[in-house]
């Protein structure tokens, strides 16, 4: 297990998620070795050398950890049992995420609830415009309050507007809620939400950031933040978003992570709903009209995840993997201790052309299911499990 100061150092010298760091971690180097390599400008750093050039000599990880602790924040890393490994693996391990180079966080600064696996076991992102209409506010309250009976964690970005309504409604209904921020500990944005953030962390929820203490909420960090909201949620609901709304970026990430993307329809006369309405029309988001509908959609996702888990746990046997034609040829052979047959005899029993039968027998042989002895073919004795 790496020293926490190594992770804190990497969090300071690397701006947000970084593919070069992840590649080194996958290659077997730990945070201690990588942090040491960054400090000494090791030759094996590759692209991480350029990514850390501006900051590597100015970081003070011990001070960052002390400042974070003073503000009530803890640094949680992949070494910790509190790391949300299930959510991170499920999101960043999808084929689309890998193809697009989506990069997981390498550490999280957390205030409030530290048990992130439990917090994100059943979570949903709720995002939208910073200037919702009266109807948009009512829709957000209705949906979030309706999800309370299903015990969801509400994940959002802490911004004014829909985010604030979602967090407030969750707290009013005794639901845990998570604020994923685009800034570090010691910074409050937006300022009017300071009291809201205190309530979130004192009532079973959490504030989470990829950024170390003092980092300010620049625009690019909000896009990075949106990715984390999507990654830590089973799905996301968009409530009112204009044509160029930043909230639409969350939909992009939901698709990247194969999460359920949902949107609330709005008036065709309201420009603030154009983004959500177009997302529904283009089938980029499923239209949702109630909390029960959302739960139904997310439960279906859960059933798919369970099916995948069952498929992995109950691995099919080599025979169960065979195609219909392959099984037909395999069944045409006697049991392992009952003799052998020529290809012509197998073809006759299987009712197939000899050429196709020979091709399939050779395929079965490559899988070590049958064996050829001169002109004769016989089954191979399989291990019984």
Tell the overall outline.
globular
Task: Give unreliable regions as ranges.
Answer: none
**What is the top-level CATH class of the largest domain?**
Alpha Beta
Strand content: 5-15%
The protein's oligomeric status is: single chain
* Helix vs. strand class: alpha/beta
Order of helices and strands: HHHHHEHHEHEHEHEHEHEHEHEHHEHHEE
With helices defined by DSSP (H or I, 4 residues minimum), what is the helix count? Answer: 18
CATH architecture of the largest domain: 3-Layer(aba) Sandwich
What's the total number of strands?
Answer: 12
Total domain count: 3
Main-sheet strand order equals 1-2-6-5-4-3-7-8-9
Please report the distance between the alpha carbons of the first and last residues: 37 Å
Provide an overview of this structure.
With 385 residues, the chain is an alpha/beta fold. The mean pLDDT is 93. The chain folds into three domains: 1-59, no CATH class; 67-308, Rossmann fold (3-Layer(aba) Sandwich), CATH 3.40.50; 324-379, Arc Repressor Mutant, subunit A. It contains 18 helices and twelve strands. The chain is globular, with a radius of gyration of 27 Å. The two termini are 37 Å apart. The protein has helices spanning 4-13, 19-26, 31-40, 47-52, 61-70, 85-92, 95-99, 116-119, 134-147, 162-172, 194-202, 219-231, 248-256, 274-281, 291-313, 324-331, 343-350, 354-366; strands spanning 73-76, 108-112, 123-128, 153-156, 177-180, 206-209, 235-239, 260-264, 286-287, 341-342, 370-373, 376-379. The strands form two sheets. The chain has a nine-stranded mixed β-sheet, sandwiched between helices. Strands 10-12-11 form a three-stranded antiparallel β-sheet.
């Amino acid at each position: 297990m790496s020293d926490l100061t190594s992770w804190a150092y990497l969090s300071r010298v690397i701006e947000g998620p970084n593919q070069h760091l992840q590649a080194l971690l996958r290659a077997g180097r730990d945070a201690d070795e990588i942090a040491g390599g960054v400090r000494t400008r090791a030759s094996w750093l590759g692209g991480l050398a350029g990514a850390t050039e501006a900051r590597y000599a100015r970081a003070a990880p011990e001070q960052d950890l002390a400042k974070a602790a003073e503000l009530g924040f803890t640094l949680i890393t992949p070494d910790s049992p509190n790391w949300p490994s299930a959510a991170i693996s499920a999101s960043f391990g999808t084929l689309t995420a890998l193809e697009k180079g989506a990069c997981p966080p390498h550490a999280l600064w957390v205030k409030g609830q530290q048990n992130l696996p439990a917090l994100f076991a059943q979570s949903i992102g709720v995002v939208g415009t910073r200037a919702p209409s009266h109807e948009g506010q009512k829709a957000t309250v209705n949906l979030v309050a309706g999800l309370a009976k299903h015990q969801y964690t509400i994940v959002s970005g802490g911004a004014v507007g829909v985010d604030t309504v979602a967090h407030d409604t969750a707290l009013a209904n005794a639901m845990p809620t998570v604020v994923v921020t685009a800034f570090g500990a010691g910074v409050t944005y937006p300022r009017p939400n300071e009291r809201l953030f205190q309530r979130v962390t004192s009532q079973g929820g959490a504030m989470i950031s990829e950024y170390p203490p003092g980092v300010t909420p620049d625009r690019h960090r909000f896009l990075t933040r949106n990715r984390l909201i999507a990654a830590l949620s089973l799905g996301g609901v968009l409530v009112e978003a204009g044509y160029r709304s930043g909230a639409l970026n969350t939909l992009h990430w939901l698709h990247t992570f194969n999460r359920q993307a949902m949107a609330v329809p709005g008036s065709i006369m309201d420009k603030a709903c154009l983004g959500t309405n177009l997302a529904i029309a283009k089938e980029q988001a499923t239209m949702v009209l109630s909390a029960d509908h959302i739960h139904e959609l997310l439960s279906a996702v859960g059933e798919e995840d369970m099916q995948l888990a069952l498929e992995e746990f109950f691995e099919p046997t080599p025979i169960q993997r065979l195609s219909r034609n392959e099984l037909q040829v395999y069944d045409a052979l006697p049991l392992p201790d009952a003799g052998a047959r020529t290809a012509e005899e197998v073809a006759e029993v299987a009712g197939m052309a000899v050429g196709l039968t020979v091709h399939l027998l050779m395929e079965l042989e490559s899988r070590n299911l049958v064996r050829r002895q001169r002109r004769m073919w016989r089954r191979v004795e399989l291990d019984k499990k």
